[in-house]
Amino acid sequence: MKMKKIFALLISCAFVQLSQAQTMKDAINELQNENYIKAKQGFLSLKGEEQTLESFLYLGNVYLNLGATDSAQYYYQKAELATDAYGSIAKARLAIMANKDSNEVKSHIEKALTQSKRRSADVFFQAAYLAFQPKPTNAQQFIGYAAEANRLAPNNHYYALVYGDLYLALGIGGKAMGKYEDVVAADPNNVLANIRIGSLYYASMNYPTAIEYLEKANALNPNFSIAHKELGELYLRTKQNDKAVVEFKKYILLNDNDARIKANYSWFLYQLKEYQKAIDESNVFKASDSSNYAYYRVLAYSNFELKNYKEAQASMDKFWKYSAGSKITALDYGYSGKIAGANNDTSSAIKYLKSAVALDTNNADLQSEYAKALYNAKRYKESISEYKRRIGMKKSAGSFDYYYLGRAYFSNGEYVCADTTFGDLTRMQPKYADGYLWRAKSMVEQEDMKNLKGIASANYLKYIELASSDIVKNKSNLVSAYTYLAYVALTQKDNAKAKEYFSKLLEVDPSNKNAQDEIKKLSK
Prior knowledge:
By secondary structure, this protein is mainly α. Helices cover 75% and strands 0% of the residues.
């Protein structure tokens, strides 16, 4: 009887060990299927002996792909305690995360390969996978390891797919496609291979073929969330909005209603300029997650683009309330500044935009916004400085940058610089009437008004030519132009020309008393 109990106990232990091994295998399969949420759940559910230091390396990879860098680092630090090849791989990963010298990374990899006697396809693969951070970086440094993993385990289709991914990261799309197609040739029902081929066609803007492959992937197995995401994006790009919503909903559900996934969906809608849809979806999501700052970000940005400035401000306030301790981007500061400006809060607009350009010193659009905010606040000297910085940036400055720089010079009394700047503007935009108008005004300020030389005449004449198509809108400035031209003619004793200009002025403004009086004098 006692022996039976011992035997039963041994069978039970063996069964548990088998079950545990299967659980570990399932978690790895989910990782290699790129179902990271399920992989995370699988690895975190491992208990006792099954929760090995090797499993912590895999869990670190899961968190890395989920964008949770701190959690990834935590598990890599646990994994590096291993004295085998996987511990060395973890050390290499931590060296990369700490921006250590590439030689240090390579020494850890070489140690791992030596520890595995250079016979383990998985160790070579883990070495190759160090390129993913989570997007491939320095692919050339790691692709050789992927090639060796692929050689040692030619039937491991995931190794082949990652090998292709590294080719893609190097810009060798043809070889990447070749690896993906090799997998499909060997296994036509490989979902990830069909997804990758679809994604490559997506990247090359061959949307119909991309949709074909991704729909095939979904038909093979509807549980691969990434296929639903890509299809959702493609349906949106091809204006199949109803289908897109269905796919994104499936994508979210397959990721257990993960808040990050919901936020990414809302953000994608914003990027596509589907602002109202982004607002609608974000409002639904925040109903059950009211402190998630990512939803308020999308709501603020999208409402601003739709000119719902009060709603944008309310959402931006919530964003700042709930985003404490989170990563704030230059765009967050930029939109905060633009929204504040739209709500006539000039001081806040300048404060936020100053932070934006400090955080992203190469963002030309934010630099323009900051310079304009200073101009609106009548801080002309500072505005001039910021516009000059904008014009010196790599991205070519736009006509409005030159226009407001010229206006800032003018308002600051620097008329020669204003003249030069508006000259640049008229060369950029030869049919922009206001460029000629403000160049003429800048020239007038340099003249002796008691002895007009007519240096602004050519620009005023060009302004009249371009602006006369809308007399109602341009009435005031047309009156100024004709008045100047008429008095230049009087200074030059060309009374006939002066009378002609005063008469044209009256066509624009029939009740102009000054023009009426001057014509009476000239008619005597």
